[in-house]
Task: structure prediction
Amino acid sequence: MKILLTTVLFIILAPVAGGLLSGFDRKISARMQKRVGPSILQPFYDVLKLFQKENVVVNISQNLYAFCFLFFTVFTGVLFFNGADILLIIFSLTLAGIFFVLGGYSTFSPYSFIGSERELLSMVADEPMIILTAVGMYMVTKSFSVADIAAYGTPLFFYIPGVFLGFLFILTIKLKKSPFDLSTSHHAHQELVSGVTTEFSGKPLAWIELAHWYENVFLLGIVYLFFAPVPVIGVAVALLAYFLEIFIDNINARVKWQWMLKSAWGAAIGLGVLNIFILYIVQ
Result:
């Protein structure tokens, strides 16, 4: 019963939280650029409008890939908030990303194709640090279970601060913020139009947007996990991390994919691996 309740609450509340985060993102970004900006509820209006629009497809399979992207992203969040194995959660998240890439490839659009290529490169850049995050949490708690990790008596940040900083670094990639918004972007400066999502419209595009909202809530959930024993601090740090990503997004221009790979792997090795090695020596 508890698992069912948690699942239902996540499915209902996560897109609400994700949509509000997106609304605050737009509002804060506008203020930073000395604009008024749209309403905080504008993302909800946009998604509702997409559900009402005609679905024009290039390839019928692209709708299936978009739905699978949404399904496995939701499944990832359900597993996480039900305290499942974090390795299984990472696998589910990766699978969702693969369906997103396949959706871009299936449209045969040059913009979508290049966007999909860059999305794959983004996954190659951030996956090592995500795996190191799971390894670091296991070394402290001796468990891959999210429930056990959350129940650990002391905030994990005190044991693996390097892993935390490394995860914050690749969070910019996962949230598709500048300087790493290479594959798709809500900003007008993206030379690929909308990258992976260029040929999507109507309901499938709404599914993709909802999937990103679910994913953002899940990613902030991992940030929270570092401070889970003190819930108030955990929520505060998660929100602060999101604000930091908005700030970074507005003060940086996009970089080339080569620099993204080098910097992400550098953060994984320099912060994640070093922290885990020191933790291994101390233990």
